[in-house]
Amino acid sequence: MRRSIIFAFLLGPVVSRLSADVGVSAGPVEGGPVYPKDRFNGGGAREAPWSTTIADPSEAGEKLTLTGTVFDKENQPRQGVTVYAYHTDRRGLYRYRPWSPPQLRGWTRTDAQGRYEFHTIKPAPYPWGGTAAHVHMTLALPDKIEWWVPGLCFAGDPLLSDRLIDQESKKGLFASIQPLQPQSDGTLRCVRDLRIPSDW
Ligand SMILES: [Fe+2]
């Protein structure tokens, strides 16, 4: 009994982190606090432009603009929300060293229209398979702990489960599965709106 308690205490954060990281295959991360010492975290609220660059021009991969609007619980655009995103590279790797954050990550802070925008590249699924390509995202406010929102996946990914597709199909721009829209300049665009979580 005592041994099991100690075991749970030691493994709890690990299991929590893993469930957040691979949750997109088993279902979206439904939300929850980001542990401050989590090496994947965004560090909470911070100043940032509403539009920012994650992947510089030398990064290999299809150029992607990920954008959307953050709404409050009254469905009004919310200014001043820090949106943090990180994802894998073209090979499906985070390229992080032990105890270091993923390489492809960035922050925005929503403008007066509640807008956020990331310029990056299309991530690939993990090379070991089983999990759809995804972008992890958190929200933060100066007076709130950083909070996970469901990871963003892309429509048409064969690794998405039918259950998740069905679950997200009626959520419109708030869904965690959104289409990659080819643009005339050869880049991709993905629009995903976010709502301040009710339990935050
Ligand atoms: Fe991940």
Question: According to CATH, what is the class?
Answer: Mainly Beta
Derived from helix and strand composition plus strand pairing, the structural class reads: alpha/beta
Measured on Cα atoms, how large is the radius of gyration? Answer: 17 Å
Number of helices: 2
Q: What is the number of independent domains?
A: 1
Q: In terms of per-residue confidence, which ranges show pLDDT below 50 for 5 or more consecutive residues?
A: 1-28
- CATH homologous superfamily title: Aromatic compound dioxygenase
Largest sheet properties: 6 strands, mixed
The distinct ligands, each listed once, are: fe (ii) ion
Second CATH tier, the architecture: Sandwich
Care to count the β-strands?
12
Mean pLDDT, nearest integer? 86
Task: Give me the strand/helix succession.
Answer: HEEEEEEEEHEEEE
Estimate the helix proportion, in percent.
10-25%
Portion in beta strands: 25-35%
Described by the principal axes of the CA atoms, the overall outline is globular
* CATH fold field value: Protocatechuate 3,4-Dioxygenase, subunit A
List the helices and strands and how they pair.
Blueprint: H1 2-26, E1 32-33, E2 51-53, E3 63-71, E4 82-87, E5 105-109, E6 115-121, E7 134-141, E8 144-154, H2 162-168, E9 177-178, E10 181-182, E11 188-191, E12 194-195
Parallel strand pairs: 2-6, 3-11, 3-12, 8-9
Antiparallel strand pairs: 1-8, 3-6, 4-5, 4-7, 7-8, 10-11
This protein binds fe (ii) ion (FE2).
